[in-house]
Structures are given as C-alpha cells and as structure tokens.
Write a structure and sequence with these properties.
Elements (H helix, E strand, L loop, with lengths): L1 H9 L10 H14 L4 E4 L2 H8 L4 E7 L5 E6 L1 H7 L5 E3 L6 H4 L6 E4 L6 H8 L6 E4 L1 H8 L4 H24 L6 H14 L18 E5 L36 E10 L2 E10 L5 H20 L6 H13 L19 E3 L6 E5 L12 E4 L2 E4 L3 E4 L2 E5 L4 E3 L8 E2 L1
Parallel strand pairs: 1-5, 3-4, 5-6, 9-17
Antiparallel strand pairs: 1-2, 2-3, 7-8, 8-9, 10-11, 10-12, 12-15, 13-14, 15-16
Helix pairs in contact: 2-7, 8-9
Length: about 400
C-alpha cells in the first residue's frame, strides 16, 4: 500500500481550477486540423466544455480561424468566471445569433450525431445562406488524442478506481447484497472526489457508476453496449447493483468508473469469497495472459481493427471463444474503447476502426469471459498510449482476489 501511495504522489502534476487559455488554444488547433467546414456551431454541453472550459446553456460559434464566440443563455456570469474565452456574450433567444455573427456563411458543421432535430432546426434557420454538414467527426477525432492536462485528469480518475478496488476485499462477506457493496464503492470514490456523473454520447445509452455483479448476474441480459450483465434494483434503472446476495465460491465482478473534472477512467476487477471453481480460475488466468499480450500491441502506429482481429484469432483457438466478451446476446464486438469526457470515445479496438493509434490516445481495455448461469471473470484497465508503448493508469493488482 505504501508503494502505491508513493507512486501516486510521483505521478501528480498541478492542475488549475479552471482550464488555462493555453490548453484551450491547443484544443482549438487540434479540432481545426480535422474540420471540413468554415465554422462549427457547437450545441452539445460536453463539446462546449472541451472548447471553452465551462458547461453552460448556449451556442458556441467556432470558426476555422480567429477567436470563438460563446453566446450564453444561462449562466452568463458563471461562463465569464470559468472560461478563458475573450468573446462571451449573453443570449436571450436564438434569433439574436445573426447579429452576433454578422459574417456567418459558407459551410457550417453541426453535431448531427447528438443534437436533437428540433434544436438543430431552431438554430440552423438563422443561417439561411449557409450549407450545413455533420461536424461531429472533427470534434470526436480531435478529442480522441488527449493533452497532458487531460491525461492527468484521467490519471486522477483512475486513482479513485484503485482506491475502491483495494477496499473491496475488506467488504466481502456472505450475504452482502450487490447494492450494499455498490454503495460502499460509491462512498469510497465519492470521498476521493468522484464527480458523481458519467457522460455517454450514444443516444439512450445511460451509465451511473458502473456494475456490481455477483455470480450469474454478470451474465444477466441487458441493453447496454458492454459485456457485463447487471440487474440493478429496478427495470427502470438497471445499473450498479441489485438485490442478489453473495454466496461463497462465486465470482464477484466489479466494473466501475472513476470521474475527475469531467474525465472518466474505466476499470474492472474480479473477486470471490472462498475459492471459485477451477473453470473460473483457469479462465481468469487466460484473461490475464491475454491482457498482457494486448498491452504489447498498444503502441503508436497499431491499427485498432488489426489488433482486434489478432485478439479474436488468439481467442478462437481456445475453449473460451464462445463466451468471450459477453454471454449470449450480451456479447459485444469490441475489446477496448476510448474514454475521456465521455465513456464511449474514439478509438475502439473493433472492426472497421482503421486509424492508427497515436501517443495521447486513452483506451479502456476489457477482456472478459462470461458463462450463463455462472457469471464472469476478467479485468479492465485504462491505458494511455505513449511514444514507445502504453502506460497502465489503473495500477492496482489484476489477479483474481480470493478472500
């Protein structure tokens, strides 16, 4: 434990309360390299935060050149206090936009992957002479490569996960309910500064802190695009832990999210109260060996789709193939996903993702195996791609911990 704490102190860099102007300008340059339009009209709160450092209700005019303009409906005062932008103005109605941006024209990019149609129509009508296109790719591609500031935020989110994972063995006892362990995990991370919120970009995909699943619950059917089953307390909120109580010898899968200053780290560990079956033990050992091999592939220049294909080729030669990355209809066709301000960022270690990895990309890698009626085992870690390979940010031990 002492060694772990020392490592955390060594890796810490100072972070200001608000995002500095220099950091924002760095992000602007990245987005502009990906833009295929004259300006972006940014409406989604997370994209606005990435480019301004404040999370308010308004419209961000982001031109290919020059200073962006943030028109704020609420809260103007908070935007002025938090953002290093020079152009921040009050906005009462969208009809004021033409007067604020008198030379608007050409091709405008909107976040058509997330902005509701009604909102798009309300705003775009005030730029009648412009052609509108989907500008979300410029934002998502720029955000896929993190700055050192962003990596440090994710590192601190990962530290919350380590704290929770190290605490879990002390909480396991026969008869404890999933939601009780979930509450303890939430408490530990909240006391470490967890933001209490996880943002997901995809429509209708919701996430709280993650999943706490005992035994067969880890293979329980669900609609979330991830391999870990979770029942939850209610059909209306199938998240975190349900009412199932822990039995001796069954695997405990904890797949949860740290959150610091908007940024997410994703991690998973497996535990048991008493020894699991030889099948589960051997499966977890295979996962650890596979994960070690995957780490060697995480380096600049690697093609995500090729890494995925190679992973699946290795798994196909084993008895675990039919249960890899989900049981039954829970099975997913990816092994890793980007994380940052949102849980489902680019890139993805999956088919058709052919852009080479770059230094600064942050990935959550989660090889897992699930058996219907029995549960699942596996691990998940958050990595940052470096110039020479990768660094694991979730540093606590990955072995199956038996209490």
């Amino acid at each position: 434990m002492e060694r772990y704490i020392i490592m955390c102190i060594v890796n810490t860099m100072e972070l200001p309360e608000y995002i500095p102007r220099e950091e924002l300008e760095n992000r602007w340059s990245k987005v502009r390299r990906h833009m295929e339009c004259d300006a972006l009209v940014v409406l989604q709160n997370v994209d606005q935060y990435y480019l301004t450092g404040t999370l308010q209700n308004g419209v961000l005019w982001f031109p290919m050149e020059g200073e962006p303009l943030l028109a704020v409906r609420k809260s103007f005062e908070r935007a002025k206090a938090e953002s290093a932008l020079k152009n921040i103005v009050q906005l009462k109605t969208y009809s004021e936009l033409p007067g604020m941006i008198p030379n608007a024209g050409g091709t405008l990019g909107f976040e058509l992957d997330v902005v509701p149609l009604a909102t798009y129509q309300q705003v775009s009508r005030y730029f009648p002479g412009s052609k509108t296109v989907d500008g979300s790719g410029a934002l998502r591609n720029a955000r896929s490569v993190k700055t050192p500031y962003e990596v440090e935020c994710i590192r601190r989110a990962a530290r919350m996960l380590d704290k929770a994972f190290l605490d879990i063995p002390e909480q396991l006892r026969e008869g404890i309910a999933e939601f009780e362990l979930a509450a303890r995990i939430e408490y530990v991370m909240r006391m470490e500064g967890h933001q209490g919120l996880t943002r997901v970009r995809r429509f209708n995909m919701e996430m709280f802190y993650g999943a706490v699943s005992f035994g067969e619950t880890a293979a329980y059917p669900h609609n979330f695009d991830g391999p870990v089953g979770v029942r939850g307390l209610y059909p209306a909120a199938p998240s975190m832990g349900g009412r199932r109580r822990l039995k001796r010898g069954e695997p405990v899968m904890v797949d949860v999210l740290g959150g610091y200053a908007g940024y997410i780290a994703d991690g998973s560990r497996t535990y048991s109260l008493g020894a699991v079956s030889p099948q589960m033990r051997d499966t977890h050992q295979f996962i650890l060996e596979l994960n070690s091999w995957i780490e060697d592939q995480l380096k600049p220049g690697s093609i995500p789709s090729e890494v995925y294909s190679n992973i699946m080729a290795r798994v196909s030669k084993t008895s675990f193939a039919a249960h890899f990355m989900g049981a039954g209809e829970n099975q997913v066709k990816f092994v890793a996903h980007g994380v940052g301000l949102e849980l489902d960022e680019l890139p993805v270690i999956a088919p058709k993702f052919d852009t080479p990895l770059q230094a600064g990309v942050v990935l959550a890698v989660e090889p897992k195996v699930f058996y219907p009626g029995l549960g699942g085992v596996g691990t998940e870690n958050t990595y940052v791609i470096t110039e020479t390979g990768c660094e694991r940010l979730t540093t606590c031990p990955q072995e199956l911990r038996t209490v």
